[in-house]
Amino acid sequence: MITGVEADDPGERHGRPLLLRILGIALLVVAVAVGVVLAIIPRSVEDELAAGEIESIGDASFYVPPSPLTSAAPGTVVRTERLNSAPEGSIGWRVLYHSTDAFGRDILTSGVVVTPDTPAPAGGRVVVGWAHPTTGAVARCAPSNGMTPFLSIEAIGPLLNAGYAIAAADYPGLGVEGPSSYLIGASEGHSVLDSVRAARSLPEVGSGSTTVFWGHSQGGQAALFAGQLAAEYAPEMDVKAVAVAAPAADLGALLKADIDDISGVTIGSYAFSGFQSAYGARYPGMSLDQILTPEGVAATAPMSQLCLLGQNAELHNYARPLIGKYLRADPETVEPWATLLQENTPAATPADLPLFVAQGGKDTLVVPSATEKFVGTQCAAGRPVDFKLYPDDDHGTVALTASGDVASYFQQILAGEAPTSTC
C-alpha cells in the first residue's frame, strides 16, 4: 500500500525498460555463481518476480511529489510503500524523502530501505548507506522502480545476515523527476546520507546512530562523498567506515581513459548533459560545444535520456559513430569544465574513517591503475586503507565478488578492531 498518495491506473508501467525489470534475476544468478547470496535469500526468482510485478502497479504515482510541497528537514519521509519483494527474512519499503542538492536547495528524492525482520539488537541496528552503480540519468532509470529493486543491492545477503539495515538512495533526478545529479558528488552524497536518515525514521528498522557506506562505480563516488560530507552535513551519524568497489574516484582521469570507446561516450553523455544542466546558470558562457564536436553535441541530449539497462542498443547506435569523434577539446583544460571535474572528484576522507577499496584486475572501465593511484593518495594522507585486487573480476562482477569481504570488513570495524591497512 502506498501511504500519502492514491495508486495510479493499474496499467501504468512508469516507462520501465524490460531489462531493468529483470536486473534482479541477472544479479541473483551471478551472485549465486560467486557464492555471496546467503541463507537470508532463499525465495525463488519466480516468487520475487510475482511480488515485484504486483507492487510495480503503483510506481508512477509513488514518485509524484505532493502538491503543494512544503520544505522539510533533510531525511524527512514524505511517503512510504511496503514492498513484498524484499528478500525472505526481511521487510522493505520504497521511500520518498527530502534531501538537499549541491546548491543547498530542498529537493525530493527516492530509494528503498530493507531490514531483517528480527528484533533489533540493543543500541539499534547499523544502517548501511548503499550507493548504486550507473543505471542512467533520468527518472525512469531509478533502481527503486524496478520489479526486484532489492536484488540490485550488491552484498545484500551478507549485510542482512549480519543484522544490518540497508538504505539505498536512487540519487536526485532518478525516480522523482528533476535535474540530473549524475557524478555531481554533493547531490549524490547528500541523498545517500538522507536515505540513512529516512531509514532511521522508520520504527520497524530499529536503527541506532551507527552508519557505514558502501558503493560501486558511480556509487563509489557517492559513498566517498557521503563519508567526506557526513561530519558537517549529518553530525548526528556515527560513521564508522566506507567501502567502495571500482570507484569513480578521479573524474578527469576516468573520462580521459574511457572516452575512446562506447562506455566512455555513454558516461560522457550522462555527465556532460548533467553538468550543463546543473551549472550552466552559474557559469555564463558554459556550453557543450566548448568541449564536444557538433556531432557530439547533437547526440548528447538524446543519449542522456536513455537508461543504461534495457536501452543499450539505442545507446550504442548513438555512441558507436562518435568513438574518436566525441570531444573537440580536453575537458580538463577548458573552464569551467576543468573546475567542475575537480570539484566533483572525491577529496580525502576524514583521517579517522577506515576505507575498504575493491578493484577488479580485468576492469576496463575503471582501470586498476586509476584505483591504485587513488589508494596511494589516501595512504599518503594517513588514512587506513584496505585495498584488495580481485585479479579475475571486471567492472560488472567485482562488487559481487567482494561482498563477503565487505561484510567482514564492516564487522571487524564495528567490533572495535584496528582497521586493516595495506598502505
UniProtKB/TrEMBL annotation:
Alphabetized GO MF terms: triacylglycerol lipase activity
UniProt-listed Pfam families: LIP (PF03583)
One biological process term in Gene Ontology: lipid catabolic process
Highest taxon, organism lineage: Bacteria
Originating species: Nakamurella alba
Keyword RNA-binding included in the entry's annotation: no
SUPFAM superfamilies: alpha/beta-Hydrolases (SSF53474)
Protein name per UniProt: Alpha/beta hydrolase
Regions crossing the membrane: 18-41
Gene3D superfamilies: alpha/beta hydrolase
Keywords: Hydrolase, Membrane, Transmembrane, Transmembrane helix
